[in-house]
Design brief:
This protein is α/β, with parallel strands linked by helices and 833 residues long. Among the domains are: 4-215, Cobalamin-binding domain (Rossmann fold, 3-Layer(aba) Sandwich); 609-715, Pseudouridine synthase I, catalytic domain, N-terminal subdomain (Alpha-Beta Plaits, 2-Layer Sandwich); 721-831, 2-Layer Sandwich (Alpha-Beta Plaits), CATH 3.30.70. Helix content is 32%, strand content 18%. It is built from 27 helices and 27 strands. The strands form seven sheets. Strands 18, 19, 20, 21, 22, 25, 26 and 27 form an eight-stranded mixed beta sheet that branches. A six-stranded mixed beta sheet has the order 2-1-3-4-5-6, covered by helices on one side. Helix 5 (117-126) crosses helix 17. The longest helix is centred in the first third of the chain and has 17 residues, at 168-184. It is globular.
Amino acid sequence: MLNSYSIETLLTQVQKPARYIGGETNAVCKNPGRCRVSFALAFPDVYEIGMSHPGIQILYSILNRQPDVAAERCYAPWPDMETLMHAQGIPLFTLESKTPLHRFDIVGFSLQYELSYTNVLAMLNLGKIPLRQKDRRDGDPIVIAGGPCVFNPEPMVLFFDAFAIGEGEDVVIEIARAVAEGKEKKRSRNAILESLSELEGVYVPSVFRGSAKIRKRVVADLNQSTLPEQPIVPLIKTVHDRITLEIARGCTRGCRFCQAGMVWRPVRERTPQGLLDNAAQVLASTGYDEISLLSLSAGDYSCIEYLIGSLMNRYYEKRIALALPSLRTETLTPQLIDQIKRVRKTSFTLAPEAGTQRLRNVINKGNTEDNLLATARRVYEGGWKSIKLYFMIGLPTERREDLEGIADLACKVLKEGNNRRQVTVSLSTFIPKPHTPFQWMRQIGIEEIRERQAFFRDRIRQRNLKLKWHDRRMSFLEGLISRGDRKIGELVEKVFLQGCRFDGWSDHFDFARWEAAIEDLGIHPDTYLGERHSAAPLPWDHIDCRIDKNFLLEELEKSSRESLTEDCRLAACTRCGACTEGIRVITADCPSSPDVGSAPSPLSADTSSHSVMSLRIAYTKKGNSRFLSHLDTSAALIRAITRSGFRFIFSGGFHPYPKISFPGATPLGMESLSEYADIQVHRENMDMTHMKKRLSSALPSGMEILHLTELAPDRQSLSKEITGVLYQISFDEADRERVFTGLHVRIERFLSAGTATITRTIKGKEKVKDIRPLVDSITCDEDTLTIDMTLRLNEKGGVRPLELLISVLKVDEKSAERARIIKKETLFIQEAH
């Protein structure tokens, strides 16, 4: 375990320190050294991305249910943090126990995106784990990868000991047990890898020989696989800040470009009752106000209308909203739209993929222009103001009329809203992914992508039509890596060593380094991105995703004839090979439809004064919680209030919000013993002592409820009652001389002055402010190395402690920035001096 002080010194210097502190609600903290096996779940992207990924939450829950397994999390540090950690010799650590990565028995990476591969190497390097598998010795962790990218593991074979192919719920436990047994029997690293290679679905390159295939793991029945009941609640706003219910896995629509639709077959649906039960458990344990239904094709779920209606009936009064991912236009019924909009309108995304019916037939996208326009009309009539449309460019057999069809279709969708709405056209470049019917097709080059993007830039010029596209250079690299072999691993390593990180982030992407490395290594991109003969060997041929290669070839041939293949759930079996040996399509039995009714639109506000109770909450922000921003602190408190059993009073309108108010924000990094918030909740028979305990237990580490006080209905707002703040500032012994020499004199001089001005730069303009009326008192104690100051607040604001220290009291700037500032007391009108 790392020294907490060392980590704390880093946190004061980085952009978002809350990414690294841990202590989230529902996080599991075991002692890794006291368990049979320790497992670090690593996600090669920043915290906000990784915490939005449901797969990590599922594996974390499964592993930590085992009493002898300690599972912890680790995310890629942002470049500012990585630089500081290297400079100070601090290894990459997990959030729960701050244990360095190299001390774990297993480090498991989730590979979701090819352009995160340099982050994998950065995390291994910073975690003090040898980059290459061949350089690891006994005592080094077993480094494993899973996720969709491992259906072609070859580009990362140099760096991983093993790959878990397919669904991880069962195999992750088997891996943990195999490593634990090897550890207890003091087996060598190679012997442990041999035992892992015997597990179905586990590819160990150093052991793999011959023409055998690694067959993906499949969870036969999702209803036997428990969803997390208490998922970790992130400390900061994430990409998907809501609970996720996986309603089904797999897809039989058969879109010929879609890797996920092929490799995750067959379709297996969860029962609606199981989903409703899980939603209740997760909402109670997290306090979220939005539910997302996760599936490759949510509209195809057999009980979608029943499920959505039931969820809305249960949670409408609590103002819990519902979000669906990108939907197929033909599955979006008027009933679904009516239910989704009952609480608030989440975003609406439709994916026609191609601009003409001919090309939609080529890719087996079974929808029509009429489907899209009718759906858009219903969405606009339902009150939505904008729609996002996903299209692909560079699809096989694409012609100019297909490009023109995209622009025309976008205009037609906009007209359905009478041109008073907005349409965003989002363009991605087709990548012929492994294990799809199009895996033998070519990917268009960078210049071709540029020409197509330029076509749309010139063609789409209407004010209410927005155009977005994926960086063509990133698409080029995604194709190169996803279709690559072990030579591509050398490329990833070379650009990592040259400084590439976060290649999927436009502000960090350095394509010039990739280009130079491609040339230096003698890599010919056309070898990987060009068309391939159907009989030619493919780098991923040894991975069996349970889809028959003949089926893929038949689908490729049908695409050339613009022929459709029906969904096997609605027609005859397509003989794709996914259903075998007890693995089959599972559809949910749908109960009779609930009485969904219809809600007022917009929602009416809670107005019954006799049922409203106003409460003032006093709480702390100590320890690591001081690194939460004001917005993140507010979100954590709102979720905790919901979890504890209080029912908020909400505003009205299409976007209701809970009635809660905060005073001014406490600066990031400042510890506080005196934070306040006022809330309005439904009046119920409550034991305030009990509610205080429940509320505290629902908060992140360092936040604690001090007291709850009921307010009179006519009580003034917090901002009008607060008149000042008492701060205490502590210094280290090393700063004694620089801070306290002559400090008494400077304090007396300031307090006796009639005015004391400082200059602030606001929006590029300098403003002079007299701060003397804002300071009630300043005292210092050299024995305890502390300064106490009482600062006033008025309608024009106040003065910051650091500002006073540096600009007025002339304390050395570095010493001031190292000081520990505590907000000890908030002063109200009756308490002001």
